[in-house]
Amino acid sequence: MRVAIGSDHAGFTLKEKIKEFLQESGHEVQDFGTHSAELSVDYPDFGFKVGESVASGQSERGILLCGSGIGMSIAANKVPGVYGALCNDPDTARLSRLHNNSNVLILGGRVVEEKTAIETVRVWLETPFEGGRHSARVKKIESFDSLRNHFPPRPNGNPLIILDHPLIQHKVGIIRDRNTTVKEFRELVQEIAGLMVYEITRTLSLEETEVETPISRTKVLTLSGKKLAIVPILRAGLGMVEGILRLIPNAKVGHIGLYRDPETLSPVEYYCKLPGDIEERDIFILDPMLATGGSSAAAIDLIKKRGGKKITLVCLISAPEGVALVHRRHPEVPIFTAALDSHLNDHGYIVPGLGDAGDRLFGTR
Ligand code: PRP
Ligand code: URA
Q1: Which residue puts its alpha carbon closest to atom 7 of ligand 2?
Q2: What's the confidence (pLDDT) of residue 157?
Q3: H/E run at residue 154
Q4: 345 CA to centre of own chain
């Protein structure tokens, strides 16, 4: 196995012993330093190097040491793709492989004896990941890692991601224009939805497979069996469906019928049909206008009641009031939007917004 190893000065002596053991056991070791116990160095410098070697696939596993193991553990786990476990005994090291699929082992050079440390490393290298019920949990960590990597959190920690790609912004500008025709509006909403989903799906995970090209056999990447469902909120959400299906033709489509009572602005449910296996799917709810947030929050409620777990909300234009309501009722649901507008007017319309999305899509104004 290709193993990256690193330590600070406090972990140096034990690192050298572990390195010897690894080499004698036939592993290929890449030593990222440090190279002396005398010179005081900073543990993050080594944690990041070993972490990046593992996360990039250059090494299959990593081993890190500092005095207690704590600083090194915190540093290494900042590298996206590192699942570092601080284990100073064989039992927890075994569990970190069986249950957590850890790819970096961290030890405290000043808290663990050489014999125990070597046994801990041996057990950790030999133990496979158990999978099964642990896979879904590990996947959750991977998805969070990936989302945060591509879309850093906002200051309040709630996941609101404004997709500011120039093509999206340009097209949103056109649909805001009251003179845009129904035909143009429809086409542009589909295009914007496709571009948004192109951005959102950059966090999907890939796996390696092999194909035969006309020239030779080669490794290729393929989506790792993710099942997707898109769920438009009727009516206006329908306007986004085709643009997304063009990119993800195998996605299942559910429908939720909600309209806002014009007096109370509260959502009224009139239809709900979801894929039977909704609990296994990554779900994108499509609601072009996140105004009071009542419709989206109610749609998320309905989907959760039917077992949906991994939910993302995709909106064209959002108001701060709607974002706040969805974050309050469903804090774990990420909201992707093309624009965050100023506020709602007295009739619950987004300002500046684009007017009534359903009417503009279907020409019913
Ligand atoms: C619109 C829009 C959203 C909802 C947003 O639907 O399509 O679903 O309003 O408002 P909220 O955040 O305040 O709940 P509408 O009720 O106009 O129905 P329609 O899509 O059938 O036109
Ligand atoms: N629904 C719309 O279609 N537009 C708004 O501005 C608010 C709710």
Answers
A1: 349
A2: 61
A3: none
A4: 34
